[in-house]
Each structure stands twice: as structure tokens, then as C-alpha cells.
Amino acid sequence: MIRSMTTFAKVHKEGENWSVNMELRSVNSRFCDVIIRMPKWMAELEDKIRRKVKESLERGRVELSIQFEASDLEIAAFKPDIVTAKAYWEAANQIKQSLNMPGDLELAQLLRLCREAIRPTETDTDMEVVWNRLEPVLNALLDKAISMSIQEGEHLLSDLKKRLDSIEEKVEWIEKRSKEHTKIAQESLRARIKQMLEEFPLDENRVVTEAAFLADRLDITEEIVRAKSHINQFRKYLEQGGAIGRRLDFLLQELFREVNTMGSKSADQEISKAVVEIKGELEKIREQVQNIV
Predict the structure, then answer these.
(1) Which of 50, 89, 167, 271 makes a 20 to 30 Å CA pair with 41?
(2) What distance in Å separates the CA atoms of residue 162 and residue 68, rounded to the nearest whole number?
(3) What are phi and psi of 126, to 5 degrees?
(4) What is the pLDDT of residues 209-225, one digit of tens each?
(5) What is the Cα–Cα distance from 26 to 8, expressed in whole angstroms?
(6) How far is CA 118 from each of CA 2, 25, 82, 124, 136, rounded to the nearest angstrom?
(7) What are the residues whose beta carbons fall under 8 Å from the beta carbon of 121, sequence distance 6 or more?
(8) Count of H helices and E strands in the chain?
(9) How far apart are CA 192 and CA 43, in angstroms?
(10) C-alpha 74: how far from its chain's center?
């Protein structure tokens, strides 16, 4: 079972004298980055919430929004900072008069620009009570998010298997084609060497050695063997499931390297075309793998 990093979940829960709304969105990311938006007075719970999200989702850029209301708890209290507000108001009016600017500075504008005018005060909110209410809702939210990521993962798995089958077929075709092309190339090379030896006084042993070296450079057998091995390993990871995104990404890099080498070493136009097709499929797989946990 593989999971996608792209997921969404939303949960609403009401209890006696309290209610909570949670919403989670996740997209692909190299690591697990959790961004939490919630009331400032709940800051004490932020690390606990972040740990729980990371344990469940493992990878992705996660945005979590929490709205919590409770009439039976002293949730937050604020007091005005009159000195700061008055100083800001006077400074703003002085700028207005100096520049002969029309209009009046309104309270809403003042509070938006001078956030220090209202300060939070210490409260006796029982955060343990808050957490006991939040935790089950957060668990339900994460369960829904994981369920959706599994569904997305199933679609990814189906697509990856099809593309992997297509790549394997092309590699097997290249292997067969390479053997046929090698025989033809060897026969052509022998004929040319024989002709050269008849026309020019060359060192036969040196010519044979150079020919063998050239044939070895054009041989793509090792690349084919390694490519097949990477494809088999890729399938094993897909069957294994779990957090396999990074390992799949590494295997793709290795597979790209072998396929590139096949293309650069082979002198056969048909093999070169097949290599281009394989690279196109690998690019599509890479896009999919970037979204796997």
C-alpha cells in the first residue's frame, strides 16, 4: 500500500458548551512541513499537535487550521494599551496635518496598523481539558486524511505499474534488437578489417585488439542487466508499500542513468528511438513518484 502526499480532510465536532472545526490540506514536499493556524492562546498545544501530524502523515507540506470555541472555559482575555494607542494616534494625525491629507483615521484602521494597542493577558485556561477535547477530533481528521491519501495512492500505483510494464517491454525489445544488431555490426566489422588488411600493411593483432575494444564500447548488455534489476527492485518497493517515495526517486535516477548510457553507446537508430520513449515514460513516473509519501 502506497500513499499520496496530496490529501484533504475536514471535521466538525460539537460537545456540551464547546465546538471545534478542523481542516487539513497536504501537498507534496521533500520533508514533512506542518503549518498550523489556530488561536494564539492555544500555542501551548502546538508542538503536541505538530508531532501527532508528523507521526501520521510522515511527508508533505501540511496546512492545518483549527477553530475552537468553549463557553465553559476562560479562553482568552485582552486589555488595551492606551499609552501606545494614543501615541500612535497622535503620530498618525501629525503626519496627516503635515501633508494636508483629507479624511479621518478610524478606529478599525488604527487597530489594524497598531496591533500592540490590544494585548492578551494571562488566563487560567485548563489546557489539559482543551487537549482532551481536541485530540479525538484531530485523530478523526488524520484518519480521514490518511484514507484519502491511500485512495490517491491506489490510483498512483495502478498508473506506475502500467508505465513500468511498458518500460520493461521496451528494455526487453532493446535487448533482443541489440543482440541482432551486434551480430550484424560484428560481421560488417570483420569484413572491413579483412579488406583493410588486404589493402594496407597493418599489424593484424593491433587491428583485432582495437576492433574488440570498439565492440566492447558499443555493447549495452551490462546497462540492460542493471536496468532490469532496477525495474524489479522498483516493483518490490511498490509491493512493500509504506514511506517509499525517496527510495523510488533514487531508483529512478539510477534507471535514467542506465537508459541514457544505452542511448549514447548504441549506434542503432531504432534503439535510440526506444530509448527516447523510455525516457518519456520515466519522466511521467518521476512526476508521480514526487507525490508518494
Answers:
(1) 89
(2) 46
(3) -80, 100
(4) 655 555 666 788 999 99
(5) 6
(6) 49, 32, 9, 19, 33
(7) 77, 78, 79
(8) 8, 6
(9) 81
(10) 41
